[in-house]
From TrEMBL:
Bias type Polar residues, positions: 550-559
Organism of provenance: Ephemerocybe angulata
Matching Pfam families: DUF4139, DUF4140
Domain DUF4140: 34-133
Protein name: Mucoidy inhibitor A
InterPro entries per the UniProt record, alphabetical: CHP02231, DUF4139, DUF4140
Region of interest (Disordered), residue spans: 547-571
Coiled coil: none
Domain (DUF4139): residue spans on this chain: 218-628
């Protein structure tokens, strides 16, 4: 039988059942399994004990104080029935670093360090007073007090005394800082040792049995201060063609619950715990005209009307309107839907607990086999990773790393340069997650052709989803952004206009021994925000998207067809051999979207180039800006 934890007063010692079973969670309970989430963990701990016929009170002490009591559940096997669960919290104790400790956390070393620190502080105070006395004495001297022949010896004596005292003050300050550091380290060490022994939560479980015998009870609870985070190692080989990207998927597990997980199976969950699962609602969005008229002064109270009169109340006075008679706003529904983590709370815990109970109840004592890596997808959003073998993770918040998988993934490479801001050419890999693993956002170490290049971040990616992986600048491709050339002329007879012609050259050089494909150079021309200013792209000769005929929407039967027919994408322009120009930034990354209606409106354009080995390629950008004579153009 399984019941939820209840918050009840502790059972009085005078009414305890005749049979009381006292267990220690750290000594008598064995951890069967641990499921680690990104912010907490679920622990299943098994106990075996004998019960007598009738009522039995099972007291389980030394439970971690970091338990979420709302998550506490009890399941059992045997001839008994579970009918209630009560928690008893320990008396609050001083906190240090989030760990409960006793009031007397000390040692002989800590006492000695404290005395030494006190002596150093006192010596430092004396040295500073002596230095201040020397300065005061020298400042109090008058010309008549010191003979001219003795002035040099007085100054030399002051310099020697001050220098000696300065050195002593500096030495004592350094010693004081070092002693303070040693005191902090010793205090933290003692706190960790004491904190591991402080498990201040006790659970009382009422168990009734029809006959005497042995039962098995599994406690399942969630603890905080526990998490796992992904870490990646990405290895890219550009020298070899069609070489897949190697991605090593690792997990860093840490827990600071105080209890050690010794030789337990670990399961990693990618789902994020959630307590607010209600769907949000939109409130009415109201607009109105702002009344700029001055406020009307309130009328003067009539003579004879008191402060508690009707007039005052109806006008929202001291006790009128929104006073005590106002109805308070009702609070929203705060019920938590679903289970502990926003899902069915029985899904994994029952599965793990049942498997653990079956193993523990076997009489042959066969050792548990190490599991190979298993992955089970949940609605193509979340996944569960079963770490092979057994792991030991101390409760000291020290990370433990484990390899989840080593993946070989296909990737497409792009070299992107925006020379207007930076002439460096940046290499980027577009990787497709063709595995069954859900990738979480996490740090990554990048290796290019066997050499470490940078630390980066891998974004979250579900199976069959592509993501961008920046690999840093590639120094073997060099770009020169030549100065801008400007020419001015006037046109027209009656209505004269001024024309500005701008041109710029961009030179690329491939220093590699092999050709490089998919080199993208991004630049821009200005965009006019005034009908009197006309901007025209001359080279490359790109055309803006042309709207389709008006009958297209009528002929289209679906919304998607109407959208596809509304704007036609212009064809790219071949500038030279291996060089194609087109509107837009040309980035074909995982986050790019093709909005035909926005092409060219932001003034961005790009060249997609194929660079032969050891050769140069020159690009030309030319545009015109026309405006009526006499108008000053801002932004050129």
């Amino acid at each position: 039988m399984t019941i939820e934890a209840q918050s009840q007063p502790p059972v009085d010692a005078e009414v305890l059942p005749s049979n009381s079973v006292k267990l220690s969670a750290q000594k008598d309970g064995k951890i069967l399994s641990v499921s680690v989430y990104t912010g907490r963990a679920e622990v299943t701990r098994l106990f075996k004990f004998n019960v007598q016929a009738g009522q039995n009170q099972v007291i389980v002490s030394e439970l971690p104080i970091s338990i979420d009591q709302q998550s506490f559940r009890v399941e059992g096997r045997g001839i008994a029935t579970i009918h209630d669960v009560t928690f008893i919290a320990a008396t609050a104790r001083p906190m240090f670093g989030g760990v409960n400790v006793t009031n007397s956390v000390t040692s002989a070393k800590l006492t000695e360090l404290g005395l030494a620190h006190t002596r150093t502080s006192q010596a430092l105070t004396r040295a500073k007073k002596a230095l201040a006395f020397v300065d005061t004495y020298l400042g109090s001297l008058k010309p008549d007090d010191v003979a001219l022949s003795s002035l040099s010896s007085v100054v030399d004596g002051y310099e020697a005394a001050a220098e000696k005292l300065d050195a002593k003050v500096l030495e004592l300050e350094l010693l004081q800082r070092q002693q303070s550091k040693e005191i902090d380290e010793e205090t933290k060490s003692l706190t960790r040792l004491s904190g591991k022994k402080q498990f201040g939560l006790t659970a009382q479980i009422g168990v009734s049995a029809n006959e005497e015998g042995e039962v098995e009870v599994a406690l399942m609870y969630a603890i905080t201060d526990t998490a796992w985070s992904p870490d990646y190692d990405v290895r890219v080989t550009i020298a070899k063609n069609n070489e897949p990207v190697t991605l090593v998927y690792k997990a860093s597990i840490r827990q600071n619950s105080g209890e050690d997980w010794v030789g337990v199976p670990i399961t990693l969950e990618t789902v994020s715990p959630s307590f607010g699962v209600n769907i949000p609602k939109l409130l009415p969005w109201r607009v109105s005209i702002i009344d700029n008229r001055p406020p009307v002064p309130p009328p003067r109270p009539q003579r004879g009307v008191g402060i508690f009169g009707a007039a005052t109340a109806t006008q929202g006075g001291l006790f009128g309107g929104g006073g005590f008679g106002a109805t308070p706003a009702s609070s929203g529904n705060t019920n938590i839907g679903g289970g502990l983590f926003g899902l069915n709370p029985l899904e994994h815990q029952e599965r793990d607990a049942a498997a653990g109970l079956r193993q523990q109840s076997g009489a042959d004592g066969t050792a548990m086999q190490h599991r190979s890596l298993e992955v089970s997808s949940k609605n193509d959003v979340n996944a569960t990773f079963s770490v092979p073998g057994l792991m030991t993770i101390p409760g000291d918040n020290t990370p433990r790393k484990v390899t989840i998988a080593e993946l070989s993934l296909d990737a497409a490479f792009e070299w992107v340069c925006v020379p207007k801001h930076d002439t460096k050419v940046y290499l980027k890999a577009i990787i497709k997650n063709a595995s069954e693993y859900a990738l979480l956002r996490g740090p990554s170490t990048m290796h290019l052709d066997g050499s470490f290049i940078a630390r980066s971040t891998i974004p979250a990616a579900s199976p069959d989803e592509s993501f961008d992986c920046p690999l840093g600048p590639d120094p073997s491709i060099r770009v020169t952004y030549h100065p801008l050339v400007k020419k001015i002329s006037q046109t027209g007879f009656l209505t004269k206009s001024i024309k500005y012609v701008f041109s710029r050259r961009i030179t690329m050089y491939n220093a590699k021994a092999q050709s490089v494909e998919n080199v993208i150079v991004v630049d821009q021309i200005p965009v006019s925000e005034d009908a009197a200013i006309e901007v025209k792209l001359v080279s490359p000769a790109l055309e803006l998207p042309a709207p389709s005929a008006g009958t297209a929407s009528a002929q289209s039967s679906t919304w998607a067809e109407k959208k596809a027919d509304s704007t036609k994408a212009p064809a790219p322009v071949e500038v030279s051999e291996g060089v194609v120009a087109q509107w837009g930034d040309g980035v074909v990354g995982a986050d790019s979207h093709g909005d035909m209606g926005a092409i060219g409106k932001d003034g961005k354009l790009h060249w997609k180039c194929s660079l032969p080995p050891q050769e140069k390629v020159t690009l030309e950008l030319k545009w015109e800006v026309s405006a009526p004579v006499g108008n000053d153009i801002m932004g050129l």
